[in-house]
């Protein structure tokens, strides 16, 4: 497909024994993942998570997850600082892309930092839209009409999510619900159909809200307020698409301030964009 930037870098599949390596790398970067996140990457795509080894030393990671053959996500491209500027990160990235494209996936997507975007521009990625990470604190806010997700409604939630996300991510949502069954909130229309939901999970630096999807600003705010109340006084992060103006409005209303920027990018023909204007928070930059 293409030559490796660093041909001396050896690739091997990541296993649960590498979770400590992943945690060490992401701690250096200051990212929010916990051990459960790494184990979930491996569980969801056991042939798509890799460790790069240079001269007998594990030096970096990359993860991939495929959402059928519509599109995939590449993330967790991490390299120890002393090993940077050797082409390791780019070689890892290309390993993740190659894995996805060899599986017949039509589009490879990722959420880039402004610095990382410079590399992605050179290998065929294009901008889709911009994201902001917002941070704030949980607070008691009154909200009505929101329920905790019941297992018998999970299939309905998965179908609802696919319309906005652009592909089925049943694997991700089922695993998140299994791990954190009390951290999933739903809102139903008068005829009993889901018209909004929000999931959250513990992170290393803060609780992470997402995915968070809603048909209207009113529903989105009800879900968010319920989550804020459940996480009263806790530090919270979420990543919002800037194409969703109501999400920006809600974040500002509850004093969630900007922490950093991301750019959602894609490689290939973006045939399955979903409905980002209904996405109030993505699941995470490492998996969409």
Automatic annotation (TrEMBL):
Residues 9-155 form the N-acetyltransferase domain. PROSITE patterns: GNAT (PS51186). GO terms for molecular function: acyltransferase activity, transferring groups other than amino-acyl groups. InterPro entries: Acyl/Acetyltrans_Enzymes, Acyl_CoA_acyltransferase, GNAT_dom, YitH/HolE_GNAT. Signal peptide: none annotated. This is N-acetyltransferase domain-containing protein. It comes from Candidatus Desantisbacteria bacterium CG_4_10_14_0_8_um_filter_39_17.
């Amino acid at each position: 497909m293409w030559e490796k930037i660093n041909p001396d870098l050896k690739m091997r599949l990541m296993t649960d024994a590498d979770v400590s390596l992943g945690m060490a790398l992401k701690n250096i970067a200051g990212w929010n993942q916990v051990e459960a996140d790494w184990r979930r990457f491996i569980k969801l795509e056991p042939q798509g998570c890799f460790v790069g080894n240079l001269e007998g030393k594990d030096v970096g990671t990359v993860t991939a997850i495929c959402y059928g053959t519509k599109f995939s996500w590449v993330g967790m491209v991490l390299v120890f600082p002393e090993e940077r500027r050797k082409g390791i990160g780019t070689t890892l990235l290309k390993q993740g892309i190659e894995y996805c494209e060899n599986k017949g996936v039509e589009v490879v997507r990722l959420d880039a930092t402004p610095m990382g975007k410079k590399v992605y521009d050179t290998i065929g990625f294009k901008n889709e839209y911009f994201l902001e990470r917002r941070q704030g604190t949980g607070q008691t806010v009154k909200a009505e009409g929101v329920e905790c997700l019941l297992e018998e409604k999970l299939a309905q939630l998965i179908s609802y999510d696919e319309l906005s996300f652009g592909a089925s991510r049943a694997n991700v949502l089922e695993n998140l619900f299994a791990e954190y069954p009390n951290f999933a909130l739903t809102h139903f229309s008068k005829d009993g159909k889901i018209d909004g939901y929000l999931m959250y999970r513990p992170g290393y630096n803060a609780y992470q809200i997402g995915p968070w999807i809603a048909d209207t600003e009113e529903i989105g705010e009800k879900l968010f307020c319920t989550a804020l109340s459940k996480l009263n006084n806790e530090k919270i992060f979420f990543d919002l698409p800037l194409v969703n103006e109501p999400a920006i409005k809600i974040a500002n209303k509850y004093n969630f301030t900007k922490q950093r920027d991301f750019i959602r990018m894609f490689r290939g023909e973006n045939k399955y964009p979903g409905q980002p204007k209904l996405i109030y928070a993505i699941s995470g930059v490492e998996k969409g």
